[in-house]
Write a structure and sequence with these properties.
Length: about 200
């Protein structure tokens, strides 16, 4: 009976750590994508030191969880005391890191709000200026994900119009619906979108 119980615990521990291993792999993948993404999402992250640090923390946590899951799986299946010792040491480190992250999130909570990102967008966005890294990156993200600003097209009302623009509304081209969500995609109705017709705009 005792042997069956230990065997059950061993396989439960393996299963639990396998999910940790998968979670760590996903987190690691997202961290790498944020830093090296070819659409330029990394430029938005790099514009703020706090977000830039957060991306690397996510990468480090993903790597740690990946290693933790691996050690837990191997230690459980092989019943290796050395691997299990490393496993419990990693759990302690992760607990301390999570505690630190919670404290930092509480201290810098005002920098992780919609209002903060909206303010940054209104401050730095230069519409269709592809020579400006910040604007070009925002345009790429909005086109790729069929979205518009942080809250919607209204975020751009305070952004200065282009000097030669005679359109009434301030909606940037990147917010207009396309038949294919890429820079090469044809606009559904560009003129109507730019003049504020909501059904031709990406509203999310």
């Amino acid at each position: 009976m005792e042997g069956d119980c230990l065997s059950c615990m061993k396989y439960l521990m393996f299963l639990f750590n396998f999910f940790i291993f998968l979670g760590g792999a996903c987190l690691l993948g997202v961290g790498i994508w944020v830093i090296v993404d070819p659409t330029g999402f990394r430029e938005i992250v790099a514009a703020n030191p706090l977000l830039f640090t957060g991306a690397y923390i996510m990468l480090a946590m993903g790597a740690m969880l990946f290693l933790l899951g691996f050690l837990g799986c191997c230690g459980a299946i092989r019943e290796n005391k050395c691997l299990l010792l490393f496993f419990f040491m990693f759990i302690l480190l992760i607990f301390l890191a999570e505690l630190s992250a919670a404290i930092l999130a509480f201290i810098f909570r005002e920098n992780l709000t919609r209002e903060f990102f909206t303010k940054e967008l209104k401050k730095h966005y230069l519409r269709n200026n592809d020579t400006d890294v910040f604007s070009s990156t925002w345009n790429s993200v909005m086109i790729t994900f069929a979205c518009c600003g942080v809250n919607g097209p209204e975020d751009f009302e305070a952004v200065p119009h282009l000097p030669h623009s005679s359109l009434e509304k301030a909606t940037p081209e990147a917010c207009c619906q396309r038949e294919l969500q890429s820079r090469e995609g044809m606009f559904v109705n560009k003129e109507a979108c730019l003049t504020g017709v909501e059904r031709f705009q990406n509203r999310q």
